[in-house]
Amino acid sequence: MTKPRIHVLALGGTIATRPDAAGAMQMGLGADDLVAAVPTLGKIAEIEAETVSRVGSHSLSFDQIHALASRIRALEADGIVVTQGTDTLEETGFLLDLLLDLDVPVVVTAAMRNPALTSPDGPGNLLAAVRVATDPWVRTHAKALGVMAVMLDEVYAAADVLKVHPTRINAFASTQTGPLAALVEDRVVPLSLPVRDAIVTARRRLGNTVPGKASPVALLWMALDEPGGLVEAMLAAPDRLGYRGAVIAAMGGGHTPERATDILVRLAAAMPAVVSPRAGGGPLLEKTYGGPSSEIALRKAGLIWGGRLHPLKARVLLETCLRAGLDRPAIIDVFAAWN
Ligand code: ASP
Question: What average pLDDT does this structure show over 55-73?
């Protein structure tokens, strides 16, 4: 029986590090090295290995992920596995999910423990990712599953997964929806299919490929007694700072400190400003509280409601909308689907 052809693309990250002379971990391993470390891969798939870059994911750019998406679209494979760092996997995976609409599984994986440590998780995660990409249930439902993240024998929707711990081996979770599947022995055990209406709406507005140039989006985290000074600076020097949009990580059901509210309303008049839950999940409220910094007032004042989308993911989505040249009503429509 012919084995599925799985294309492994390596970007870098802890999974691809090796120690330098002083013992510090440096980027170094390529896709061939990662694949060679897991001989079992050859038993379940025809593996094609490609090194895309050797960078920490904390230094990846939107442009690099757009280039990766174009490369993936051009491949003729039965499944795609991307290896990268864990630091931005929750963002890059979501961006790939917005950009790719393929009939074959696309899986992103990484490692928390580097190859020099006892029991590194990289090889096991790579094997699990390839198993997922070759699994019959996953292949049948590839479009419905969207881009997936596989970490520590769990399969998550890239649109929902979050990095919830900086060092622990079990650092990933889908806090809002739970995993899509689990791995046990050599099997993938299906658990659920994701609700993807919001992704479908976004894709319809964005088109399949998103041209255009980088459109920086500021991430403004609201916190106790925040005076709004950074927003003042953004409005005073828009060209120098260069932000074209903003995500406001709001408190609770969609609230901001009253002292910062006027300036946030002015920001919303100057550029698309999306309100997203700093609690990490939603949905946000729409019509419960009154008062100047309540959800009712902020919505009336022109802030765009980001619904249940985590601030990091809202920032990725807004950058993508701006890059694609969407106007304000279209951006509102895209985010409304997450409410
Ligand atoms: N800083 C690393 C990266 O994101 C961390 C990791 O891979 O776990 O590339």
Answer: 97
Biggest distance spanned by C-alpha atoms of the chain:
67
Q: Does pLDDT of 17 surpass 90? A: yes
Look at residue 208 in the predicted model and tell me its pLDDT: 67
Which amino acids bring their CB within 6 angstroms of ligand 1?
13-14, 56-58, 85-87, 110, 112
Active-site position among 14, 17, 88, 134: 14
> How far does the centroid of ligand 1 lie from the alpha carbon of residue 78, in Å?
27
Average pLDDT over residues 131-154: 98
CA 176 → CA 38, 181, 280, 282, distances in Å? 33, 15, 9, 8
| CATH architecture assignment, domain 5-194 | 3-Layer(aba) Sandwich (3.40)
The preferred substitution site among 29, 34, 58, 90 for testing ligand 1, maximizing ligand atoms within 8 Å of CB, is 58
Instruction: For the full predicted model, state whether its pTM sits above 0.85.
Output: yes
- Residue 300 vs residues 4, 268, 285, 290, 292: alpha-carbon distances, Å: 53, 11, 13, 11, 10
CATH class entry, domain 199-336: alpha beta
Q: Is 14 one of the catalytic residues?
A: yes
Q: Domain extents for the chain? A: 5-194, 199-336
Distance, CA of 332 to CA of 191 (rounded, Å)? 32
Chain segment 275-317, per-residue pLDDT in tens: 999 999 889 999 999 999 999 999 999 999 999 999 999 999 9
Ligand 1 atom with minimal separation from the 111 CA: 8
* Ligand 1 centroid to residue 87 C-alpha, Å: 5
- What is the mean predicted confidence (pLDDT) over 97-105? 97
| Closest atom of ligand 1 to CA, residue 58 | 4
Written as six digits, the tokens of 293 are 């910094």
